[in-house]
Amino acid sequence: MKTRAYVLNAPSSPLEETVRPLPAPQAGEVVVEVTACGLCHTDLGFARGSVAPRHDLPLVLGHEIVGTVVEAGSGAEHLLSQPVLVPAVMPCGDCAFCRAGRGNACPAQKMPGNDIDGGFQTHLLVPAHALVSLAGAPPSIALDSLSVVADAVSTAYQAVLRSGLERGDIAFVVGGGGVGGYVVQIAHALGAKTVVCDVHPERLDQLPADARIGVQGRDVRDVKKELHGLARGFGVPSLRYRIFECSGTAGGQLQAYALLAQGATLMLVGFTREPVQVRLSNLMAFDATMAGTWGCPIDAYPAVLSLIYEGKVKLEPFIERAPMSRLNEWLDALEEHRLNRRLVLDPNA
Ligand SMILES: [Zn+2]
Ligand SMILES: [Zn+2]
């Protein structure tokens, strides 16, 4: 078996198209023929060298993968010919974290495009135990669109779950592109009021939010006043504020932290290397909760997929299909903030 891969050989160098042999799957492994792979900001960080992947270079990036199992090692034969999703976080399934239901934080996890070769290629070799079957997808849902479930949608779902959000709560989402947009859709689907703020409010148009707030150049206290006022208008007490920092910027983190109030919960979903200065004692004074969230445990995927299959979470308005052969151009476009939708890349185009 051969694969045509886009390989990162050195930080900040263009990905290089290479045809190379793929090893045969060993016991418990499969070869997935990639239908599509989403392009994520994490790929850009790895490609530009601002974040180092855990595996040494050369490495094939890409961690939002759907495809079909075309070869199976022993014990994985039942997956042959099945459409599957390759989760961005593949837990080992057998450690203290996995046994406690915290597989998304498993220290032995494998992430495609970070720990092992990822989805920017025609075929990839992955462990079979963490794959999620897409055999139940209704014909109205295009298989390639489900690639974004592997990270953007499932990460959003886990963040909402971890926040303890219930019907009648209010979700304040800081940063409505990508993951933040899915937090809005999922919180709305679960019966919460949703308020989303972004420096580019025009990209929030298609989100089912009760309010969309532009925050470019505004003072965080001014935005806090407006958002807390909206919550009061909806009759939601601060105990039921679920705040989601999805921008992955220092400014967004300061805004999200400023939204804390008595009994509120703040989830950190976005990532930035930049430090921020806050008064941590606010958490104490407010009896508030703040937590980070990474990936999504495998057993949560059926619930995520159900929301999509039932049309409660929409993917199509937020994705754009593009040929993988122009991957280097797409990385530039992502870096220059020229993409408004998540790119779903076709390895055969
Ligand atoms: Zn990602
Ligand atoms: Zn584990």
Index terms:
349 residues, alpha/beta, Quinone Oxidoreductase, Chain A, domain 1, Rossmann fold, 7-stranded mixed β-sheet, 6-stranded parallel β-sheet, 9 helices, 24% strand, binds zinc ion
Write the layout of secondary structure elements.
Blueprint: E1 2-8, E2 16-21, E3 29-38, H1 41-48, E4 59-60, E5 64-72, E6 83-86, H2 96-99, E7 123-127, E8 132-133, H3 152-163, E9 170-174, H4 179-189, E10 193-198, E11 211-214, H5 220-234, E12 241-245, H6 250-258, E13 265-268, H7 281-286, E14 289-292, H8 301-309, E15 319-323, H9 327-335, E16 342-346
Parallel strand pairs: 9-10, 9-12, 10-11, 12-13, 13-14, 15-16
Antiparallel strand pairs: 1-2, 1-4, 3-5, 3-7, 3-16, 5-6, 6-8
Helix pairs in contact: 3-4
Bound molecules: zinc ion (2 copies).
The secondary-structure element order is EEEHEEEHEEHEHEEHEHEHEHEHE
| pLDDT averaged over residues | 96
CATH class of the largest domain: Alpha Beta
Q: What would you say the CATH architecture of the largest domain is?
A: Alpha-Beta Complex
The tally of beta strands, per DSSP, is 16
Poorly predicted regions are none
Task: Give a brief rundown of this model.
It contains nine helices and 16 strands.
